[in-house]
Structure formats: C-alpha cells, structure tokens
Amino acid sequence: MLDIDIQSLKCSWVKRLKFQPYSKWVQLYETMLNKYGQQLIFTCNLNAIKDTEQLEIKSIFLKDILLAWSNVYFRDDISIIGKEIIWNNTNIKSNIKPFFLHDWADIGTVFIEHIYDYRNKQLFSFNEIHNLYNVPQTYFLMYYQLTTCIKYQWKVKLKPEEIQYNAPEYLFEKLIPQLKTCRYIHVYNAILKKKTNIQINQENKWEATMSSSFNWKIIFG
After folding, report:
1. What is the CA radius of gyration of the chain?
2. What are the φ/ψ torsions at residue 132 (nearest 5 degrees)?
C-alpha cells in the first residue's frame, strides 16, 4: 500500500473523533489534547516534522494521527494572513515552538484578524484589547508574547489586506459529509501536492532564467 493511502487511513480517525464525542477513547484523547485546544488543533497549521513531532502526547496512536493530519493539511503558502489561526501555528512561535494560550482562546481571539485593527493597519494595543475583550490587566505579558511572535513579514502583508467576511474552509469540516473519507483525503492531498509542484517548477524557471538561486521562503515571506 502506498504511504499516502496509509496517511489517509490515519487521517480518517479525525472524523471519528468529531462524531463520537461521548466515547471513552475520544474523551481520553481530548484530555491529552487539552493543552493544545482539543479539536482546535485539527484546524491549526502545524508542520509535521518541525512541530507536530515535538508535541507532548503520550498516545503513540494519537501522535500518528496528528502527524498524518499535519502531512496532509499543513500549508506553507499563506494567502490571507488575517484568517490564520494564531494557536499551534508553525509560523507563529514562542521560544522556537508554536503555542496555545487557553485564556486568550477562551475570550475569542483565535484568528490574527481578532487582534488586528484594519482601520489603522496595525495590531491592537493592549488597552484596545482590554476594552474589546474585557481582559484583565494581568494579561499584558501574554499580550506581549503574542504580538511579538507574529513575524514582521506578516505584519507588512497585513497592511494592504481588508477584512474578509467569509469564514475559512477547513478540511476538518469538509470531512463531515464525506462517505468515503479516506478517498476524499487522498484526493485532497494529491491536489495540494500538485499545487506545490507547480510552485517549485515556477521557482526553477526563474532561477534558470536569472542564472542564480534564491531563498524563496524569504521572498514569499
């Protein structure tokens, strides 16, 4: 069996996690995922090798599910910065690790757009966050941690962006109506890989034209 099919099979367990909330095994796994926001982690943008591998999860099986999910779902080509989930994000790190702050997620700050002022084109100050979300003054250090973890390139890309009213679509939600879950994940991953290969071909073309190599991660931010 091809490795991609094994990944799809492991990813199909994510649907079981969603639809069997009262099962003891699901409750056990959600307890293990509590420090990462429980099922929120399946909508977060984690790189499998860099970050998912480092998650502190005791269950080998659950870890395998998350690794397979990250291999399929991780996106490095971010088009709309404001719709990026702050938590468990490979691109937003504190002490070289993605992080999750329960207190901040609980008050409703999930996406970058929740802490960004589109009128003034800058992140909300702590006083503005305090007034908007009624957070206590003791949250200041967490605010500082959060705002300094968003990389400069993203803050620049945010300036020309406008508010996006359409909710992002997640693979986690798309699985719900699918009868053939493994097949759907397989096709989804194949489309992503095709998109990635097209991007690599474009990069190779420019490098050949310019007779030089480029750091594409810096160029694309």
Report:
1. 19
2. -70, -45
Q: At what angle do helices 3-11 and 60-73 cross, to 10 degrees?
A: 110
How many C-beta neighbours within 10 Å does residue 68 have?
25
Find the angle CA(79)-CA(62)-CA(64) to the nearest 5 degrees. Answer: 70
Which stretches in the chain have pLDDT values below 50? 1-4, 191, 194-199
Q: How crowded is residue 102: how many other Cβ atoms within 10 Å of its Cβ?
A: 12
Beta carbons of 175 and 15 less than 8 angstroms apart: yes
- Cα→Cα distances 187→28, 201, 213, Å: 30, 21, 32
**Residue 106 identity:** D
Alpha carbon distance 160, 18 (integer Å): 37
Q: Tell which residue, 78, 104, 86, 5, has the closest CA to residue 43.
A: 86
- 109-128 in b/e burial notation, b at 16+ Cβ within 10 A? bbbbbbbbeeeeeebbebee
Two structure tokens written together for 129: 């966050």
Instruction: Please report the pLDDT score of residue 47 as a whole number.
Output: 92
> Which of 34, 2, 7 lies closest to 182, judged by CA?
7
- pTM, two decimals, is 0.74
- Residue length, the chain? 221
176: CB partners within 8 A, 6+ apart: 15, 18
CB 158 within 8 A of CB 81: yes
Check if the beta carbon of residue 101 is closer than 8 Å to that of residue 87: yes
Bridge partners for 111 per DSSP:
85
